[in-house]
Write a structure and sequence with these properties.
There is one protein chain. By secondary structure, the protein is α/β, with parallel strands linked by helices. It has helices at residues 16-31, 51-65, 73-82, 93-106, 122-131, 151-162, 180-190, 221-246, 255-268, 277-280, 299-303, 404-407, 416-426, 435-455, 470-477; strands at residues 7-11, 40-45, 83-87, 111-115, 139-144, 170-173, 204-212, 281-287, 289-291, 294-296, 312-318, 328-334, 341-348, 366-372, 376-384, 395-403, 460-463. The protein folds into two domains: 7-173, NAD(P)-binding Rossmann-like Domain (Rossmann fold); 177-249 and 260-419 and 436-477, Dihydrodipicolinate Reductase, domain 2. It contains 15 helices and 17 strands. Strand 1 (7-11), helix 1 and strand 2 form a beta-alpha-beta unit. The longest helix is centred in the middle third of the chain and has 26 residues, at 221-246.
Length: 485
């Protein structure tokens, strides 16, 4: 039986992700009394420093990243007292052996390893832990996306980590699954009798999933140029949102049930081939423009070299199963777009017949599930406009809004990793990704890249501050739809 971890070993404890997200998340759990009383945290990094020096580094990260009104000096100190440090280079056998000895000295129960490192280190770290006898029962391992660059590399990483850790003890992290808005999608679907009967092709005309960013590559040019929008965003974040939206109701909210239903969606995704690449996909790359009235350079200027990497992707996808047959799912993501937003837009079918006459326009009902920058749900309905009119009733759209910021203003807004850390520490894998999910997603994505190569598809330019190439606007319009902007 899984027990809460008594030791968290954080590889890459001095890296960017750790200082921006992980240490503030651990502090949030500490502040709310959610960390196990005996949990200790061992940070690994390359540079030599003492426990005291490392604790100062963690304290500085908290000072920069946690709002002053949320920082409680006593709770900060309580977290720091849990923290230890050990320097070890992953490619140095002797140093990794010394780290293993330190883990053994600190271990009193279950251990959670979190690999906040480059993916190429996942298998070597897992192998080193296995060689030291530290990967058996009572241990589990968190690894960050991207799990590979394509299907073969994903299989290689999964095989490497899988040789050391059983699948049920591998926690593949997509931080989107820790977001309150994403989890609320599950609550909306399966906690209310109102929506589930409508959640199918008989009632829904189209679905749009948009993850828009205003930022450029922000010093991550070399990584991003190797990845691009398709691998960086579509393969994980957007496909995970698609799965949670479209999956069948799981029997229970537990790992196997939820993951089984998600994989059924991925297996039902219709491949995009070279013959329909032009009508079902658009790749783009931003040029110089303006964001919020501020001039910004183009992607190639930021990168400092020529590139054919896509910074924008729009797709028209289909799920070929009983529930969703004929419903287009439009996926869109990109950098340097006009506003930061992650949302799911659901347009229902129009009423079959208007009783109000041709002069009264009736818009289809729509549901907007906004995930960021703020979480909110909005349902658009038709309503009678106040007043008298001899021509009959005048109708207008109104929105029923639930703003989570207003509704739950008394509660602290949590970082996604707080949810993920709490679940991983306690051994709950429901919000983590199983191996077959990762590989099925890569299989679909690899098929699109193959279609682009065969069709000669290259990124189309779009000025920063716009909603992507003109071709992306045409993508839904040729089918009578339009993007929600």
């Amino acid at each position: 039986m899984t027990q809460p971890a008594t030791l968290l070993v954080l590889f890459g404890a001095t890296g960017d992700l750790a200082t921006r997200m992980l240490w503030p998340s651990l502090y949030g759990l500490e502040k709310d009394g959610l960390l196990p009383a005996g949990l200790r945290i061992l940070g690994q990094g390359r540079g030599e420093q003492s426990d005291a020096d490392f604790r100062r580094l963690v304290a500085e990260a908290l000072e920069r990243r946690v709002p002053a009104e949320d920082r409680d000096p006593a709770r900060v100190q309580a977290l720091l007292e849990r923290v230890h440090y050990h320097a070890a280079r992953i490619d140095d056998t002797a140093e990794m052996s010394a780290l293993a000895e330190r883990i053994c000295a600190l271990r009193t129960g279950d251990v959670l390893y979190h690999l906040s490192t480059a993916p190429r280190f996942y298998a070597p770290i897992a192998s080193a832990l296995s060689s030291a006898g530290l990967s058996g029962p009572g241990t589990r391992i968190m690894i960050e996306k991207p799990i590979g660059h394509d299907l073969p590399s994903s299989v290689e990483i999964n095989e490497g980590v899988g040789r050391a850790f059983a699948e049920e003890r591998i926690y593949r992290t997509d931080h989107y699954l820790g977001k309150e808005g994403v989890q609320n999608l599950l609550a909306l679907r399966f906690g209310n009798a109102l929506f589930e009967p409508l959640w199918n092709a008989r009632h829904i005309a189209q679905v749009q999933i948009t993850v828009a960013e205003t930022v450029g590559v922000e010093g991550r040019g070399d990584y991003y140029d190797h990845s691009g929008a398709m691998r960086d965003m579509v393969q994980n974040h957007l496909l995970q949102l698609l799965c949670l939206f479209a999956m069948e109701p799981p029997a229970q909210f537990e790992p196997s049930s939820v993951r089984n239903e998600k994989t059924k969606v991925l297996r039902s995704l219709r491949p995009i081939t070279a013959s329909d690449a032009a009508t079902h996909s658009v790749a783009g790359q931003y040029t110089a423009g303006a964001i919020g009235g501020v001039a910004v350079p183009g992607y190639r200027e930021e990168l400092g070299r020529d590139s054919q990497t896509e910074t924008f992707v729009a797709l028209r996808s289909h799920i070929d199963n009983w529930r969703w047959s004929g419903v287009p799912f439009y996926l869109r993501t990109g950098k340097r777009l006009p506003r930061r937003s992650s949302e799911i837009y659901v347009q229902f079918h129009k009423v079959p017949h208007s009783i109000f006459g041709a002069q009264t326009k009736i818009e289809p009902n729509a549901l907007v599930i906004q995930l960021q920058p703020e979480e909110r749900i909005s349902l658009t309905l038709m309503s009678k406009m106040p007043g008298l009119d001899r021509q009959g009733l005048k109708l207008s759209e109104i929105a029923l809004d639930m703003d989570f910021h207003d509704t739950f203003a008394h509660l602290r807004k949590r970082i996604a990793y707080e949810r993920l850390y709490l679940d991983a520490i306690e051994g709950n894998g429901t919000l983590f990704v199983r191996r077959d999910e990762t590989e099925l997603a890569w299989q679909w994505i690899d098929g699109i890249f193959a279609a682009w190569r065969e069709a000669g598809t290259t990124p189309k330019s779009y000025p920063a501050g716009t909603w992507g190439p003109t071709a992306s606007i045409v993508l839904p319009e040729r089918h009578g739809h339009s993007w929600r902007e």
